[in-house]
Amino acid sequence: GIIEEALVHKRGVIIFDPTAQWTGMLRKCEDSAMFKRYKYFDMKKSEAKGFNGIIKTINDPYELVNIKKYLNRPGEITIFNVSHLTPKQIDVVVASTIQQIFKANPSESSKLKTLLVYDEVHRLLPKFGGSGEGFVQLERGAREFRKWGIGLVLISQVLSDFVGEVKANIGTEIQMGTRYEGDLERVKMKYGEDVLKSVVKEPIGTGMMVNAAYNSGRPYFVAFRPLLHNTKRLSNDELKKYEKYFEEVEDIE
C-alpha cells in the first residue's frame, strides 16, 4: 500500500525482489477477497490498476547494474528480480547497488524522489547464508540517503533482524500482527503491555506504526486500504518475455 501511494504521488520506486512476488504490481487487482474490502474504504472496483514499470531479472550477481539510470523515474516502478540468486549472491547485488548510488553522487533534495525497497532483508544475515556485506551497505544508506531524497524501505518477517546502526536510523517502524516472541518482547519493553496485546490481536491488514514526529512518538494503529495491484506474481513465461524484451531494449540503447 505504501509503495502504491508513492507511485500515485509520482515518486520513483526500485524494488529488489527475492521471490518475484512484486511483479504483480504491473497488473491490476483481480482478487475477490481484496475487492470485498474496497467498500470499507469508499473504493470502487474500477479503481484497481497496475503500475507502469519494468522488470529486470538478474542472473549474474556480478553484473554491473547502472542504478543511476533508474533513480529518476517519477511514478514508475523498477523491479530487480533476484529470485534466481542465493542469499550470498543477493548480498553482492545489494552491496554493489548501494555503492553505485554513492559513486553516482545524486543531486541533493529535501523532498522524497525515489523509494528503494529491499524485501526479505533477513536473507542478508550470515545465519541465512548472507555475508553481512549487504547489511553494512544498508547501514550506510540508512545514514545518508535522505540528503538525496532517497527513501529506504526494509522488509523482514522479523523486525528484530534489524541490527546496530540500521535500527538506530529507522524513521518509521511498522509492525504487522505477529506471534514471534522476540518481536513481542521488544514491543512490550518499549511500549508496554497494552500495545503488546493490540499487536497480538490486530486483524490482517492492520499494523502498529511508530514515528517520532507523530502522536508524540507513541505507537498508533493503522488499517491499511486494500491493494490496487494484483496479489499474484507474474508467471515464469511472462517473466521470460520481460527478460527477453528488456535485453532487446538495452541492446538498442
Describe this structure in words.
- The protein is built from eight helices and eight strands; from the N terminus they run H-E-H-E-E-H-E-H-E-H-E-H-H-E-E-H.
- By secondary structure, the chain is an alpha/beta fold.
- The radius of gyration is 19 Å and the shape is globular.
How big a fraction of the residues is strand?
15-25%
> Structural class of the helices, strands and pairings?
alpha/beta
The helicity comes to 25-40%
Number of helices: 8
Q: Which strand order do you get reading across the main beta sheet? A: 2-3-1-4-5
Q: Which of globular, elongated, flat, extended, rod-shaped describes the shape?
A: globular
What is the oligomeric state here? Answer: single chain
- Low-pLDDT stretches are none
Distance between the termini: 33 Å
The count of strands amounts to 8
Mean pLDDT: 90
Helix-strand topology string: HEHEEHEHEHEHHEEH
Reported for the largest beta sheet, the result is: 5 strands, parallel
